[in-house]
Amino acid sequence: MASIFHSGLSKDLSSILNDADDFNVIIQVGVKNNIKEYRAHSVILRARSAYFKSALSTDWITKKNGMILYNKPNITPTIFDILLKYIYTGELDLKEYQDEDILELLVASDELLLEELFDHVQDYLIKNRTTWIQKKNFDLVLNTAFKLMNCRKLQDFCLKFICIDPQPFITSENFLSLDKDILYNLLEREDLQIDEIVLWECLIKWGIKQTPGNINNDIVKWNNKNYEALKKTLGKFIPLIRFVEISPSQYYDKVRPYKAIIPNHIFKEVEEFHFKGTLQKAIILPPRVGKIKFESTIIKKKLISIIINWINKRDAKAIPDKNDLSYNFNLIYQGSKDEINNQSFINNCNMKEPILVLIKCKNSRKIFGGYTPAGFYRISKKRFNRNENNQIISSSDSFIFSFENNNDTRNMRLSHVKSHIYNIYNNNYGDFGFNFGERSLYMQDNNLYVNYDFRYGRKIKFVNTYIIEEIEAFKVVENRIDNYDMTKEMFYGIQN
């Protein structure tokens, strides 16, 4: 086994940087009164940086007296000091530097194609300089992150911060100057927790400001050219608005006047939604799921809207209404934390409340699950008789299901319990963690068994025995919200 002496190597390379007399590159950094020259070695620069490997090639370089001359006016000496130390020694302590310098270092490391350094600086900003980003320089960091193609982590960090409480940002003056790419990424997020009508109104204001020709804010004074210009500006953004979340009265007063800028197929579907309450083509995006309390390591959040539709006895891809968003899924059991065995599941899920179970199995991407509105609970010993039907919990609305993977919205399979049979088995004897039907889907310690029997309407695919990798159970809490402030009948009475 080879011995490794990195500390000595780092020290020696540091001395080469500071004291070498055999350098062959002179780099001039900075502009005006903030200029500094650095002496370096092309072989080290080229080995450590893909940027310098190209920049110091024979086609690019300028030589004088056998020395390579190179200018970098867009990087300050302070930042280049950090970069050279990293290039030569691989050492860096970001605690020593100001927040602004670290952000500049991120930009410079991206330009010089120092991927390892770039990733480290990005992670450091997110983990250690959160307060500086969120409270003092959010706009600066947001715009900087979206100028860097590979800065996905910092971009997502900034967008998530907006989504937690988006209204102050979206209704601010700064929003009207927001870069179109940032706006697009923000609008397409499912966790953007804002009233959709507020988002729509702010999008119109943004579009007016971004449209050449100085469109008047008073829509009454617009002509066809004004509508066409705004339609061109907002063309790719309008399909990202969740029109199904806008009430009939708001739609009539604040959306319908802009009919001319909305693509015809979208406008027709929105009208159909408000007339019939359904969307046949499903071109319009469903409501954002950010308002639903649901955190799972097994499935992605967008699948919960499918499960909610199943709970409400609707087609998986139906457009949910506002009340569909009012569920909370409170985690009551997680195998990785509470142990994967019958007794642990029973102890945590012994309740007469609606429960959703999700299961991920080892060596498989498939996801299984079941829902019971009656819960899993023990029957008192006085009433319980294993040889009688009271070992069965009445649950005519239970169902089991499967997904191909944690992102599957096409090939999922649902199986409802048949209406004349009521089968969720109680846990009095601890034979199972849970048991849907006559062992249609059941847990025995760390094993999951997927079978088919007459108590459920169809096979859910993948009949087999699996080893459970993770299992989660959620208590499903329904919080009904107020209906639209105007009924659909009243809305269409206004129209007529």
From TrEMBL:
Known SMART domains for this protein? Answer: BACK (SM00875), BTB (SM00225)
Q: Which SUPFAM superfamilies match?
A: POZ domain
What is the name of the protein in this document?
Serine-enriched protein
Query: CDD domains this protein is in?
Result: BTB_POZ_ZBTB_KLHL-like (cd18186)
PROSITE patterns tied to this protein: BTB (PS50097), TLDC (PS51886)
- What organism does the UniProt record list as the source? Rhizophagus irregularis (strain DAOM 197198w)
The TLDc domain extends over 305-477
Q: Tell me the ranges covered by the BTB domain, including all copies.
A: 23-96
